[in-house]
Amino acid sequence: MNSHEKATEADFYQYMRGRLYRPVVFLESACIVFIIASFLLNPYLTSGISRLEAILLVCISLISLAKARWPSILLWRMGTCLYSLALMLISALEVQDMAGRGDPFIVPILISIWFYNAFVTPSKYDCLAILLLTGFAASLVCGRSLMSGMAPELFGLLVFAVFVVAITLNRTMLTMMHSMFFMQDEFRRLAEIDPLTKIPNRRALFARLDDKLPLHQQSWFWVLIDLDDFKQINDRYGHAAGDQVLVCFADLLVRLSQPAFLGRIGGEEFGLLLSRQSASQVDQLLNRLQAAVAAARPGGVCFSFSAGVASFTPGVSTADVLRMADQAMYAAKRQGKRQVVFASGSPQMADAI
Question: Where in the chain are the domains?
Fold first, then answer.
């Protein structure tokens, strides 16, 4: 996610999965171990594990493995629902095999599943679906034995109270996590966005340099841009006019340089990370930008820029690319400003000269 982009609900689900990954994987794995142990150690079972129970156990294991293995949010959400349903079914079937001695266990198992999902389900709709599906599965398998001798009125009141508490816990947890995530995202954006121009700042731009895509069919270019005579603009027209020039230039960069990652390095310096087929395409883009700058005249102020361009090539470090672009930019200044100079040390620059 780029620093100038706001987080989305999909990003929130990824955040939730990341925060819950370790505890959920641990608890689901532990639950599988407990189920196996209960079938081996339960003295009240009238028979061994049935074929249906074995199938459910395999399904639970495969669902848990898939959730841990693949980062898909859809798989995570659907897997949580299916895991809870299968867990409730295998628990209810085991209780039924205990010939009435296991009836007191089914309600605590159901409540435990409800409360567990209240804390690990990333959507209120998923939580509601799990509560309804597991409750229906328990009643379908156990029937009236689910009430364990309780009066129907008291049993209904207990189930309703636990249902409301589980939904409330889930809603409270999601609200807190939602607020925390988007607050952190806003702090991230504030830390990585230039407050004047609203484009990425030096920190975000240089971080992107380290994360640039590997070289494939297209080439990567680093463009260092410096506005010409910016100090004279501030001295003659005032700093408010200078700020207006910076904002105007940033807007032109965003509009004309796509697709690219750009940012304000500091003062009147800007940087562009471009992916293009050739250096001539970079040259054409910068010429269009120069023409747009000449026609802009924000607040009646004329301005121009000088730029140095260097390419990322195998065997050349990022530090060397930055140094070559810096030297090329100062060469553009010495040549009379309002120039674009390509670093001579980059082997792909010949076609732009």
Answer: 9-189, 202-352
Amino acid in the structure at residue 263: G
Determine the angle formed by the axes of helices 152-192 and 202-210, rounding to 10 degrees: 100
Give this prediction's pTM: 0.65
Residue 152 burial (CB count, 10 A): 9
Instruction: Write the DSSP symbol of residue 219.
Output: E
Distances (CA, A) of 246 to 43, 250, 289, 320: 78, 6, 14, 27
Low-confidence ranges of the chain (pLDDT < 50): 214-217, 347-353
Q: What percentage of the chain reaches a pLDDT higher than 90?
A: 50
- Output the CA angle 243-249-253, nearest 5 degrees: 145
**Angle value at C-alpha 232, between 230 and 234, nearest 5 degrees:** 75
To the question of domain 202-352 being in CATH 3.30.70.270, the answer is yes
Contacts of 244 (CB under 8 A, 6+ apart): 298, 299, 301
- Considering Cα of 181, then 182, then 187, then 188, what sign does the dihedral take? positive
Cα separation, 52 vs 55, in Å, equals 5
